[in-house]
Amino acid sequence: MARGGSRRLQGLALGLLLALVLAPRALRAKPTVRKERVVRPDSELGERPPEDNQSFQYDHEAFLGKEDSKTFDQLTPDESKERLGKIVDRIDSDGDGFVTTEELKIWIKRVQKRYIYDNVAKVWKDYDRDKDDKISWEEYKQATYGYYLGNPAEFQDSSDHHTFKKMLPRDERRFKAADLDGDLTATREEFTAFLHPEEFEHMKEIVVLETLEDIDKNGDGFVDQDEYIADMFSHEDNGPEPDWVLSEREQFSDFRDLNKDGKLDKDEIRHWILPQDYDHAQAEARHLVYESDKNKDEKLTKEEILDNWNMFVGSQATNYGEDLTKNHDEL
């Protein structure tokens, strides 16, 4: 398993996978999948390694996730630069010809927020079967698990049986946590909290609990070092561990395991995946400015951004092709 991407919080933002083909008719939605983890805050920007095409992917996925970061892959360099230039004008909110870290941070947060609500809008009709602009637990359960519940014999000897059996009660628990008024029916806001729990304060405990359940293979209610490593690295050839794995073991001992008892409890997991003192958008904005600010005046001209276009292309700060045509007052 590759390093890094398997632990980013954006995976949580993906929520559901739709259209699992288990039968020829009707929607076969797959239940919520294993959550990806938060990547630890980067080292000081000055210590960050030189960028290349591979490490640009960090910046792209930090904003969008893997799928949306591919949008610009279909464009020529000239087309990418042209689109990027138009978006820079949007980011420069005061029109002074410079993009500051604050302006970039605000833009990143705004587009991330819209991505989440657009994601919910795309799947809404698949679950709101009676078109009452609400989604009941029964509607969601039937859309996601209906075929499994109606044809259990087909799953008895398959890995899907274990997956569905495990995920149905887990989804129900998460749905009820998102359902603030307890009527087992989700409004758009409540369904957004269900699909994207990391974005809502009242859902943070669910995020922590699901992470613990995913990684805690021996079921003791804690995450030990081997379980922590196994979540991000599969030892397939019985050879020596890569240096980055050894570094992660040190991270576990020195920074994750706060009480030094050799394992992570819920509080330590929360501190790991939901760090209170880390603003992802601020960190990414600072990084983009640092890497592109040729004259070191701590702000970017359009020319500086276009000169470093390959770093920006594909990130949510500069992506979302529809951004140039949508109503920009909607957020």
From TrEMBL:
SMART domains: EFh. The keyword Cell wall biogenesis/degradation does not apply. GO terms for cellular component: endoplasmic reticulum lumen. Residues 33-51 have a biased composition (Basic and acidic residues). InterPro entries: EF-hand-dom_pair, EF_Hand_1_Ca_BS, EF_hand_dom, Rcn1. Residues 79-114, 115-150, 166-201, 203-238 form the EF-hand domain. It is found in: Endoplasmic reticulum lumen. It comes from the Eukaryota. Its main location: endoplasmic reticulum. One of its GO terms (biological process) is in utero embryonic development. Residues 1-29 form the signal peptide. GO terms for molecular function: calcium ion binding. Residues 32-56 are annotated as: Disordered. Belongs to the CREC family. May regulate calcium-dependent activities in the endoplasmic reticulum lumen or post-ER compartment. This is Reticulocalbin-1. The lineage of its organism: Eukaryota, Metazoa, Chordata, Craniata, Vertebrata.
